[in-house]
Amino acid sequence: MKKAVLYGSFVMLASIFFNYFSGEKDWGVNAYYGVAFGLAWGLAYYLDRPDFFLAKKLILSLLGMIVLLIAGLMFFNTMIAVPSLIRFSAVFVAYYLLASFRSSKSLKK
């Protein structure tokens, strides 16, 4: 769990600074998209365990997306909240795509 939080935080900070230096100057939106990236990577890393069944992984990732959507709708509008879900999904899928290239099918091992 500690590594999942650590990796999620690192990805979040990297995403915030990448978005800022690539032209987006609104820190609130940068932070929200950074949280989306960090939450996705940290959650994917946490769920990358052999003792979790697929149904549990799907439910927990769906809960992460719902939390992200609710936060986006509370602080921003749908034009910002919906793309964060797409970013979350892309990072989540990218994690498992990278893991699929390894023989252990996991990035933890």
Explained architecture:
There is one protein chain. With about 110 residues, this protein is mainly alpha-helical. The protein has one domain. Helix content is about 80%, strand content about 0%. Helix 1 runs antiparallel to helix 2 and helix 2 runs parallel beside helix 4. The longest helix is centred in the last third of the chain and has 23 residues. It is globular and about 40 Å long. The mean pLDDT is about 85. Keywords: Membrane, Transmembrane, Transmembrane helix.
What is the topology?
Blueprint: H1 2-21, H2 27-47, H3 54-75, H4 78-100
Helix pairs in contact: 1-2, 2-3, 2-4, 3-4
SSE order in H/E notation? HHHH
Major sheet characteristics: none
Please, what is the average pLDDT?
A: 85
- What is the CA-CA span between the terminal residues? 15 Å
What characteristic shape results from the CA principal axes?
Answer: globular
Count of the separate structural domains: 1
Percent strand: under 5%
Question: What is the helix tally?
Answer: 4
> Structural class, from secondary structure content?
mainly alpha
The radius of gyration is 14 Å
Low-confidence stretches: none
- Strand tally: 0
Approximate helicity band: over 70%
